[in-house]
């Protein structure tokens, strides 16, 4: 999963014993982006996930738990998953300061991701701190105020954006947190109609509303309006049922998926935990697709892996425009969706966001990819 770094205590208090997350070594996916080759560009945040190390104890007084830093964030996870599948992928990110920045870059590089467009930022790296309760439930804390990820400017994006982009994926916290979210929205508006644009809301309620959200310039209404602006130009929308419920409380999921598809996107893909995927396209019946049943270790990075599997398979099939996506038959589209679902399922069989390689995907399908 990338380099793990033990850091000083962050949050006081002991945690219930839990099996430690296994850290799998990066496997070196040297896949260079070929000049002029149509590629996937992922734009978003780099987050260091701080996970408790219960095996290390909490010191003599129970007040000094140890945490292990893991590379994370929606954009990094999507780019890494696509890179491991052999897709040409560039990650646009603002790399903040501090000792945790270098492992973020290295994690992407070792998965075949082009990081040459990273912006070296003077602001700090974003941190997400995870605490585990007696029942294993997660309690999240964030250190993101003034972080590098939210500070995009029009000039930075214009200079960094690859001219070979065939698919642009945006979403998550950076896409709805000011001031950088406005620059991202303007980029999406500029490229709309010239390439495939994908949006994933990836809501984090603590950061989207309430006191913490307010400190970042976010309110629930403002976040919904910012996402509406992006989705007005989206060709593909990937959304979880949980995020959809935050955006439209108590709305019917089947109806909501279909309505979203009629409002502009060529494809809406809704995940719903272990339940069937919802697949909607304008003017067509809503489809439900069963997902692979696997022994689940955890679901960290599952949605990001599914999105990456979708993009990698579309690019492999030469689907690089909205017209080409629209022309896919239902059978062909469901083959693409099935591949994406298998990528997500394989990610869930091991600890943390640790998506499969192309060879591992081929072995699971019983044929080369």
Explain the overall architecture:
There is one protein chain. Helix 1 (about 75-85) runs parallel beside helix 2 (about 100-110) and helix 11 crosses helix 13. This protein has helices spanning about 75-85, 100-110, 155-160, 175, 180-190, 205-210, 210-215, 220-230, 240-245, 255-260, 300-315, 320-325, 330-350, 360-365; strands at about 5, 40-45, 45-50, 65-70, 90, 95, 120-125, 125-130, 140-145, 165-170, 195-200, 235-240, 265-270, 275-280, 285-290. It has about 375 residues and is of the alpha/beta class. The strands form three sheets. The protein has an eight-stranded mixed beta sheet, sandwiched between helices. Strands 1-4-3-8-9 form a five-stranded mixed beta sheet. Strands 6-7 form a two-stranded parallel sheet. Mean pLDDT is about 90; it is low at about 1-30 and about 135.
Instruction: Give the ordered list of helices and strands.
Output: EEEEHEEHEEEHEHHEHHHEHHEEEHHHH
Major sheet size, sense and barrel closure: 8 strands, mixed
For this structure, what is the CATH homologous superfamily?
A: Ribokinase
Strand order of the largest sheet: 5-2-10-11-12-13-14-15
From the alpha carbons, calculate the radius of gyration and give it in angstroms.
Answer: 20 Å
- As for the number of domains, it is 1
Just name the CATH architecture. Answer: 3-Layer(aba) Sandwich
The CATH class name reads: Alpha Beta
**Spans of at least 5 consecutive residues with low confidence:** 1-28, 133-137
Beta-strand content: 15-25%
Distance between the termini: 22 Å
Number of helices: 14
Helix/strand structural class: alpha/beta
Oligomer: single chain
């Amino acid at each position: 999963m990338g380099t793990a770094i033990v850091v000083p205590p962050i949050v006081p208090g002991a945690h219930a014993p839990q099996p430690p997350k296994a850290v799998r070594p990066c496997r070196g996916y040297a896949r260079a982006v070929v000049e002029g080759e149509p590629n996937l560009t992922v734009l978003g945040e780099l987050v260091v996930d701080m996970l408790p190390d219960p095996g290390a104890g909490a010191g003599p007084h129970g007040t000094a738990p140890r945490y292990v830093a893991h590379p994370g964030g929606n954009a990094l996870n999507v780019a890494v998953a696509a890179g491991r599948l052999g897709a040409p992928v560039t990650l646009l990110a603002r790399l903040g300061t501090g000792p945790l920045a270098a492992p973020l870059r290295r994690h992407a590089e070792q998965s075949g991701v082009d990081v040459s467009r990273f912006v070296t930022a003077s602001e700090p790296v974003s941190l997400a701190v995870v605490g585990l309760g007696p029942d294993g439930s997660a309690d999240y804390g964030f250190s993101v105020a003034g972080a590098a990820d939210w500070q995009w400017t029009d000039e930075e994006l214009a200079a960094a954006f690859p001219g070979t982009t065939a698919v642009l994926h945006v979403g998550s916290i950076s896409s709805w947190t000011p001031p950088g979210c406005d620059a991202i929205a303007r980029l999406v508006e500029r490229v709309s109609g010239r390439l495939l644009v994908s949006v994933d809301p990836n809501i984090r309620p603590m950061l989207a509303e309430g006191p913490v959200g307010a400190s970042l310039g976010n309110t629930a209404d403002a976040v919904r309006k910012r996402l509406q602006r992006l989705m007005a130009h989206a060709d593909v929308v990937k959304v979880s049922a949980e995020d959809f419920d935050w955006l439209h409380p108590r709305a019917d999921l089947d109806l909501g998926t279909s309505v979203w598809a009629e409002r502009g996107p060529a494809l809406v893909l809704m995940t719903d935990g272990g339940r069937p995927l919802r697949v909607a396209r304008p003017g067509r019946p809503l489809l439900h697709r069963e997902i692979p049943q696997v022994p689940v270790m955890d679901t960290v990075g599952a949605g990001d892996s599914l999105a990456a599997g979708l993009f990698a398979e579309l690019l492999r099939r030469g689907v690089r425009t909205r017209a080409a996506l629209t022309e896919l038959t239902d059978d062909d589209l469901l083959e693409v969706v099935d591949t994406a679902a298998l990528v997500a399922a394989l990610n869930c069989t091991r600890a943390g966001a640790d998506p499969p390689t192309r060879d591992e995907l081929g072995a699971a399908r019983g044929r080369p990819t």
